[in-house]
Specification:
Helices cover about 50% and strands about 15% of the residues. With about 240 residues, it is an alpha/beta fold. The chain has a 7-stranded parallel β-sheet, with helices on both faces. It is globular and about 50 Å long. The structure holds NADP nicotinamide-adenine-dinucleotide phosphate.
């Protein structure tokens, strides 16, 4: 399989690369930090069929699209690059809010604008969106992150409906807390926190099973679903209490 992984220099993306590194797989790893990607390449080269690095900032949309155009064939893209602004009670500065939307949402469309016609032409292709359980409940301290991931779910759903007839499979993954550079910045208690290896093992398994929507860990997902099922006034009370 030829697989493109965005945000492959650390955390979930780097571990995805490790778990997909096998003699059958050609990996294309994209991120900004070249030294991190070079170290990962050195580590994985003995295991993978081939590894190509794309040093790119996903918010530089035109350059990103040129890099996508240079990819000839592809079996799967894992849209994993993402940022969080942490939890902050203050009003988010517009510039930071926009940057987050550029990375977490718009870059994915910039990539797919180029890749979708290629997938359509070959009548196959898997698109994996790494969303978040945070998309299912809006924490007042993470407005930009929660809303960007909820928008990503809506976008992914639309892509799934639209391109099903072309043999394109869309998989949306909603992880809870997984150990990474992103979560290392959190100073609060993270319920049901998973090790990177275990979290990514579950993602890889869900992709292999071609689950359209996979939210985990299950107990955390059920708690959030239950909250969403409650009448609004009760949910407001609980969310405000948690905050
Ligand atoms: N960890 C969790 O608990 C958790 C839970 C739910 C969802 N997620 C999602 O999982 C994904 C991966 O996050 P992570 O936890 O593994 O965090 P991470 O360790 O901070 O990794 C984020 C990755 O995104 C890349 N990235 C960020 N901005 C970029 C840009 N402008 N251009 C290119 N690449 C960029 C980073 O690479 P460079 O800095 O080298 O560019 C890095 O490889 C994100 O979409 C996140 O929202 C994480």
């Amino acid at each position: 399989m030829k697989i493109l992984i965005t945000g492959a220099s650390s955390g979930i993306g780097a571990e995805l690369a490790r778990q997909y590194a096998s003699s059958n797989n050609e990996l294309i790893l994209l991120a900004r930090r070249e030294e991190k990607l070079q170290a990962l390449k050195a580590e994985l080269l003995p295991h993978a069929k081939s590894i190509k690095l794309l040093i790119a900032d996903v918010t530089l949309f035109e350059e990103l699209q040129e890099k996508m155009k240079a990819i000839d064939t592809l079996d799967m893209v894992i849209l994993n690059a993402g940022i969080s602004l942490g939890h902050n009670a203050e009003i988010t500065p517009f510039k930071e809010f926009k940057k987050l939307y550029d990375v977490n949402l718009l870059a994915n469309h910039a990539i797919l604008e180029v890749l979708l016609p290629k997938f359509q032409a070959q009548k196959s292709g898997k698109i994996v969106f790494i969303s978040s359980l945070a998309s299912l409940i809006s924490m007042p301290t993470a407005k930009a992150y929660s809303s960007s991931k909820r928008a990503l779910n809506a976008y992914a759903e639309a892509v799934r409906y639209k391109y099903k007839k072309d043999g394109i499979k869309v998989i949306t993954i909603l992880p809870g807390f997984i150990r990474s550079e992103l979560t290392d910045k959190n100073s609060f208690h993270m319920p049901f926190l998973l090790d990177t290896n275990e979290g990514v093992r579950r993602i890889v398994d869900a992709i292999a099973k071609e689950k359209r929507f996979y939210a985990f860990p299950l107990r955390f997902y059920l708690i959030i679903s239950l909250l969403n099922f409650l009448p609004q006034y009760l949910r407001d009370k609980i969310v405000n209490f948690i905050n």
